[in-house]
Design a protein that fits this description.
The complex is a heterodimer. Chain A is an all-beta fold. Chain A has no helices and eleven strands. The chains are: A mainly beta, B mainly beta.
């Protein structure tokens, strides 16, 4: 399966600290995406990184991709209480037409 | 721009009853997805449509689940008869192109339909 697996399962930090979440997957991919889900809501797309890219930034988000290790990381800098949510990585396989989600990391930012 | 609309938001039924969920994707989005999210887990793809054709339904329990996308726009997901393990949030998503295509890949999700089977 190409399903991503996030690590850690849960993370609790203080406001202002950085949060790092990791994702590992098993097969080759076309792209890897990160989504956020607030409690009781739908998922919101954060960032997409393609297999030929190594790093992308979007605001306070930084994503890295290491295809040799089949892993990705999501860094949220200067976290805020509003960042409290579940974060999922999702991988699109080499033929690209199916997005498979991991189990997610629950992030709690304490104010 | 209107987002992905889903209804109902909540549904409680007895096991062996039937239920239907409706989804209206973002206008112009060719690809529509139904995901099942069990509490504490990530979303699992049930079925993916490209326009009104099925691209992937490999994880759809076809003995009880069915889905259709009439005229390549709205979609309905039906469960009949429901089992206790079907209790979950059913998420509909849409995208301009399938997840791995060159220009896009972002999925837009609705708020979900929470099903409780008693």
């Amino acid at each position: 399966s190409q399903q991503g697996e996030e690590d850690p399962q849960a993370l609790s930090i203080q406001e202002g600290e950085n949060a790092t979440m990791n994702c590992s997957y098993k097969t080759s991919i076309n792209n890897l995406q990160w989504y956020r889900q607030n409690s009781g809501r739908g998922l919101v797309h954060l960032i997409l990184i393609r297999s030929n890219e190594r790093e992308k930034h979007s605001g306070r988000l930084r994503v890295t991709l290491d295809t040799s290790k089949k892993s990705s990381s999501l860094l949220i800098t200067a976290s805020r209480a509003a960042d409290t949510a579940s974060y999922f990585c999702a991988t699109a396989g080499p033929y690209g037409n199916k997005l498979v989600f991991g189990a997610g990391t629950i992030l709690r930012v304490k104010s | 721009e209107a987002g992905v609309a889903q209804s109902p938001r909540y549904k409680i039924i007895e096991k062996r009853q039937s239920v239907a969920f409706w989804c209206n994707p973002i206008s112009g989005h060719a690809t529509l997805y139904w995901y099942q999210q069990i509490l504490g887990q990530g979303p699992k793809l049930l079925i993916q449509f490209q326009n009104n054709g099925v691209v992937d339904d490999s994880q759809l329990p076809k003995d009880r689940f069915s889905a259709e996308r009439l005229k390549g726009v709205d979609s309905t997901l039906k469960i009949q008869p429901a089992k206790l393990e079907d209790s979950a949030v059913y998420l509909c998503a849409s995208s301009l192109d399938p997840a791995g295509y060159a220009n896009t890949g972002e999925l837009f999700f609705g708020e979900g339909s929470r099903l409780t089977v008693l």
